[in-house]
Amino acid sequence: MVSVPPPGLRIVPASQASLEHLEQVFGAPGDQDECRCQWPRVSRAEWKASSQDEREAALRSQAACGQGEGAPSSGLLAYVDEAPAGWVAVEPRSVYLRLRAARLPWLGRDEDKDDDAIWAVPCFVVRPEFRGRGLMGELAAAAVAHARGEGAVAVEGYPVIPVPDARTPVGDLFVGTVGAFERAGMTEVSRPSPRRSVMRIDLAPMSG
Questions:
Q1: Is the pLDDT of residue 88 over 90?
Q2: CA neighbor of 174 nearest in space, from 61, 25, 18
Q3: N or C terminus: which one in the chain shows less Cβ crowding within 10 Å?
Q4: Burial (CB count within 10 angstroms: exposed 0-12, middle 13-18, buried 19+), residue 155
Q5: Which domain holds residue 45?
Q6: Quick check: is 160 in a domain?
Q7: What is d(CA 22, CA 3) in angstroms, rounded to the nearest whole number?
Q8: Dihedral of CA 43/14/202/5: which sign?
Q9: Domain with 56 in it: what CATH number?
């Protein structure tokens, strides 16, 4: 089935969005309100030691809301009919300390963890009222396009594989789904465990 973008969809770097809209996405019910997209970025010890206020402040700094076109930002914000609807994190893979420390994503692969030209998409947030519209796939595709524009040579994602005939908990979906990453042109390059996939797209250099 071909994914059809939700009517009225636009996706922009968070630096071109307002802090109020970022808060509307992260303040919706769900684990993201506590996490504030900091779990992938810090060590286990740093996560346990951090406060909610510190995580909120870190996201505000990283997202750089309101700083305008060209300002570095840690993710993209989606709007549907001008209502803030979702978020995707996308930055060089080396930024995500938890990912670097994990064992599974690297099994069977000879990868330079310090290569800033490889970008990663570690998490998504979609507000409850906008779920079921294919928004995650659109965010994944936008993240790949954004990374390419920033000079990335490849982009990766790390979705959880659903248990057959079982409903996947919403909390497992923050890392994305195989289908969402396929929508972005990624293919599986590794299956380090029965429930974890490594998806990747290698990007041709931009001409001109």
A1: yes
A2: 25
A3: C
A4: buried
A5: 9-202
A6: yes
A7: 25
A8: positive
A9: 3.40.630.30
Residue 208 within a domain? no
Are 138 and 11 within 8 A, CB to CB?
yes
Total structural domains in the chain?
1
pLDDT in tens, 131-159: 989 999 999 999 999 999 999 999 999 99
pLDDT band at 62 (very low <50, low <70, confident <90, very high): very high
Which of 51, 64, 81 minimizes the C-alpha distance to 14?
64
Residue pair 190/148 in contact (Cβ under 8 Å)? The answer is no
pTM above 0.85, yes or no: yes
Task: Give the pLDDT score at 13.
Answer: 97
Asked if 113 and 100 count as a contact pair (C-beta separation under 8 A), the reply is yes
Beta-bridge partners for 196? 160, 193
Residue 205 tokens, joined = 């250099």
